[in-house]
Write a structure and sequence with these properties.
With 454 residues, the protein is α/β, with parallel strands linked by helices. The protein folds into 2 domains: 3-68 and 85-223, Rossmann fold, CATH 3.40.50; 234-428, Rossmann fold (3-Layer(aba) Sandwich). Helix content is 34%, strand content 14%. It has 16 helices and 14 strands. The chain has helices at residues 10-18, 26-36, 51-63, 99-112, 129-138, 147-155, 172-177, 181-188, 206-215, 246-256, 269-281, 295-306, 317-320, 340-347, 368-378, 393-399, and strands spanning 41-44, 92-95, 120-123, 142-145, 166-169, 196-201, 220-223, 234-240, 262-265, 286-289, 312-315, 330-333, 357-363, 383-384. The protein has a 7-stranded parallel sheet with strand order 3-4-2-5-6-1-7, with helices on both faces. A 7-stranded parallel sheet has the order 10-11-9-12-13-8-14, with helices on both faces. Strand 12, helix 14 and strand 13 (357-363) form a beta-alpha-beta unit. Helix 2 (26-36) packs parallel to helix 3 (51-63), helix 3 (51-63) packs across helix 4 (99-112) and helix 14 packs across helix 15. The structure holds adenosine monophosphate.
């Protein structure tokens, strides 16, 4: 199937070509015609499947380039100054759980709508409301928003939702997890009942099914990946390692394996900063992205990572949600999640749009229950990393000065197949001056030893 078969307008086809897409992904092939036909859709799809284009392209088509409807003006001649009504009213609202996802969705509308005349913007918390207020007052056709900030703008009178024709709830399960359901219900009460609604979620827990029943009208269900299905083309490996051995294991992996761009997950903001400090001391360029960082710091970190200036991004789950970064070669679960579905979200960051990826999980003795749950959901085992290509854990840890005895269980019998020398990217070894290939005998004096146990 080609994009031309999906009844998309010329300008959209041109935008898709410019974006470098050759064929529609499965969710695009299914959802685009449904949305063009005005159907409500309940989509079970994770990030990385091309779901954003699946709804953004047909929405742009449906809104078209027609002049926005004249909104009602109801001026009373009471002498009070009234704010000038916006030039256009919001016709499509997309709700998303995080600022990063909101920005990415808005960027996608920009990419696919570049040859059209519709205006879009994203509003989200954590930044000054002023510029967003002014953009909203100037009028947009498509608004992407996180729920809390949207409610703020609504109560400030910056935006009205009474002209909404299309509503999208993206990553609904994450919005549920983040406690946004009451906000969403409040927003829904201000949107016209007669509208088209699309609800997308990576998983379909009962509260999301209930929400779907409440807000969708005779929807078509589209399930691109099973609820439990991980992104295809991702290899899963596990490392038995206790907490104190993790810094050394991470450095060793970055050094000994062909990792070109890694997203590292920790559970806490503090933990994320700690990993960054460890990597910086070891000479690896890394940044953290989490809720305590200002929006500007997060944007900068993301841009540097996307541009390849930093090779490692350390993130908490909420901050990483929806990140759209191509070519992440490895997702590293520095701290394993105890929610199997979060594991699927995490690894959805690699192996995107058909590329292959690798997920490496550090498993401590406390994590065995979580590991079992994840493996049950995946219906596969996270292969113990004895034979992980190019990696020899015992050798790597020993060379970090972090004896195998210290990181109980992290080595022992799992060094049989490795062999070292994985051709690590130069970006991971800025202090080294060599070719970037690691060898058994290579001295590691460039790295402070204390970093291994910090
Ligand atoms: P999403 O699931 O919407 O987050 O998209 C994941 C990634 O796939 C993004 O980087 C998109 O730019 C990319 N993408 C979306 N559709 C296609 C397509 N048809 N062909 C190639 N890449 C795509």
């Amino acid at each position: 199937m080609n994009f031309e078969d999906l009844r998309l307008d010329k300008s959209l086809l041109e935008a898709v070509r410019t974006a470098g897409y050759e064929t529609p992904t499965p969710i695009q092939a299914e959802v685009i015609p449904l949305v063009i036909d005005g159907k409500d859709v309940l989509g079970c799809a994770q990030t990385g499947t091309g779901k954003t284009a699946a709804f953004a392209l047909p929405i742009l088509q449906r809104l078209g380039d027609a002049p926005p409807p004249q909104h009602r003006t109801n001026y009373k001649n009471d002498g009070k100054p009234r704010p000038r009504p916006p030039a256009r009213k919001v016709r499509c609202l997309v709700l998303a759980p995080t600022r990063e996802l909101a920005v990415q969705i808005a960027d996608s509308f920009g990419t696919y709508g570049k040859f059209g005349r519709l205006k879009h913007t994203a509003v989200f918390g954590g930044v000054n409301k002023g510029p967003q207020f002014r953009t909203l007052r100037a009028g947009v056709d498509i608004l992407v928003a996180t729920p809390g900030r949207l409610l703020d703008h609504m109560s400030d009178g910056a935006v009205s939702l009474d002209s909404i024709e299309i509503l999208v709830l993206d990553e609904a399960d994450r919005m549920l997890d983040m406690g946004f359901m009451p906000d969403i219900r409040r927003i829904l009460s201000k949107i016209p009942k007669k509208r088209q609604t699309l609800l997308l979620s990576a998983t379909m827990p009962p509260p999301i099914r209930k929400l779907a029943r409440d807000i969708l009208d005779n929807p078509v269900s589209v399930e691109v990946a099973r609820v439990s299905a991980p992104a295809v083309a991702v290899d899963h490996w596990s490392y038995r390692v206790e907490k104190d051995g993790k810094p050394a294991l991470l450095s060793a992996l970055l050094d000994h394996t062909a990792i070109s761009r890694a997203l590292v997950f920790t559970r806490t903001k503090y933990g994320a900063d700690k990993v960054v400090r460890h990597l910086s001391r070891a000479g690896v360029k890394a940044d953290a992205i989490h809720g305590n960082k200002s929006q500007n710091a997060r944007t900068r970190a993301l841009a540097a990572f996307k541009a390849g200036k930093t090779a490692v991004l350390v993130a908490t789950d909420i901050a990483a949600r929806g990140l759209d970064i191509d070519d992440i070669s490895h997702v590293i679960n520095y701290v394993l999640t105890n929610e199997p579905e979060t594991y699927i979200h995490r690894i959805g960051r690699t192996g995107r749009a058909g590329a292959s990826g690798t997920a490496l999980s550090f498993v401590s003795s406390e994590d065995h229950g979580s590991l079992r749950d994840i493996e049950r959901l995946l219906r596969t085992v996270l292969q113990p990393a004895i034979d992980f290509p190019g990696y020899n854990a015992a050798e790597a840890l020993a060379s970090q000065g972090n004896g195998t005895g210290k990181s109980r269980g992290s080595s022992g019998n799992r060094n049989r197949g490795g062999g070292g020398g994985g051709g690590a990217s130069d970006r991971f070894a800025p202090k080294r001056g060599g070719s970037g290939r690691s060898t058994k005998s290579r001295p590691r004096s460039g790295r402070p030893r204390r970093s291994a146990a910090s």
